[in-house]
Design brief:
Layout (H helix, E strand, L loop, with lengths): L5 H9 L2 H20 L1 H5 L1 E7 L2 E6 L2 H9 L1 H11 L6 E5 L15 H9 L10 H5 L8 H18 L12 H7 L3 H8 L2
Parallel strand pairs: 2-3
Antiparallel strand pairs: 1-2
Length: 189
């Protein structure tokens, strides 16, 4: 039995098709937000490449349909950045709930920061939520009652919209001087 050098072994691994495909997919993940833009990247997740076809999960059917119309433009941009050429892109909502890829995505942290600064965001005001207690919510009725009590407490502590008198997150009042619904209604006139 003859031993092969470490360089020879590494070269044979790197030349395997599966290894090259994995490296190509990693390059695609890195350039995805640059190619489609940060807003679209936040609503999409490349899943796999099979036979030159890129599968992309989208957060909703509207995103899948819109991006299907844009796929030729996206293909041209991706092919300019990748060493192997893609032949098509398939957009679907089917694997959006699968978080295995999203935890490694470069734009997940940016999406979280955006939500932290959103004017409609309300901190959990429930005493149970603040203390870290979570009741056992195996039954739908118990889960609904817990949600209802949290929402009631939040709305009780929230300031009122000067226009419609509904409980409103403080961030919305600071930004628009009214709740988001009244602001949208005002913009549509």
């Amino acid at each position: 039995m003859s031993f092969k050098s470490l360089n020879h072994i590494l070269d044979s691994i790197e030349n395997q098709a599966a290894w090259q495909a994995q490296q190509e997919f990693k390059r695609l993940l890195k350039c995805w937000p640059e190619v489609v833009g940060v807003a679209v990247a936040a609503q999409t997740r490349p899943i796999s490449i099979s036979r030159g076809v890129l599968s992309v999960a989208t957060s909703g059917a509207a995103w899948a349909q819109t991006l299907t119309f844009e796929r030729q433009r996206i293909l041209q941009k991706l092919n300019a950045k990748l060493s192997s050429q893609l032949v098509d892109i398939r957009f679907s909502t089917a694997q959006w709930q699968n978080k295995s890829v999203s935890s490694r995505s470069p734009y997940a942290e940016e999406q979280s920061v955006t939500w932290q600064e959103h004017p409609s965001r309300v901190e959990g005001m429930s005493s149970a939520a603040l203390s870290g207690e979570k009741p056992e919510l195996k039954e739908p009725k118990a889960a609904f009652q817990h949600w209802e009590s949290v929402m009631r407490e939040r709305s009780h502590l929230s300031p009122l919209c000067p226009q419609c008198q509904c409980p409103t997150p403080p961030g919305e009042l600071q930004r628009w001087n009214v709740c988001a619904l009244c602001a949208v209604h005002k913009w549509q006139r």
